[in-house]
Design goal:
- With 183 residues, this protein is α+β, with helices and mostly antiparallel strands.
- The chain has a single domain, classed as VC0467-like, CATH 3.40.1740.
- Helix content is 21%, strand content 33%.
- Strands 1, 2, 3, 4, 5, 6, 7, 8, 9 and 10 form a 10-stranded mixed sheet that branches.
- β2 and β3 form a beta hairpin.
- The protein is globular, with a radius of gyration of 17 Å.
Length: 183
Amino acid sequence: MGLTNHFLIAMPGMRDPSFRRGVAYLCQYGEDGAMGLLINRLSEYRLGDVLAQMNIKSELSQISDAPVLIGGPVQPERGFVLHAPHGEWESSFKISERICVTTSRDILVAIAEGHGPREVVVTLGYSGWSQGQIETELKENSWLTAAADERILFSTPLEQRWEAAAALVGVDIASLTDYAGHA
């Protein structure tokens, strides 16, 4: 079961506060585990704050004011940029034909100057799962999975992404209870 380029959508009963009502985009999934980025957790930072910490200036208010998301609890000081394939970057990984993740400074410089990809999600930190962990959590009904949809990733307002991702597989997640029963 290949889950790269899929959403993990937290079920209402998710107890881990890092993932409650969360949507994670899986960048890598394999026998060693998985790596993903939460795409619906707003951080306290704006892109201008992150750029300033890296001594990068932007004169573009739409760039400086852009939100930065919390990608997950692992390495919260590290930045990740999800984007459509555009340009050549020092440290970029192609997830699918339409989505890449880049971790190098050069993409942030290009974004600050208005020459970067148009559709981006910038996160601090990432989410990681050890070997077999996602499979166990899926069996425990902690997550729904759905093939990723770029509209949700880049266009859907943050506060609507949880419900919109679940709707991809026909689930009205807001109507589900937050506990599981066993017959």
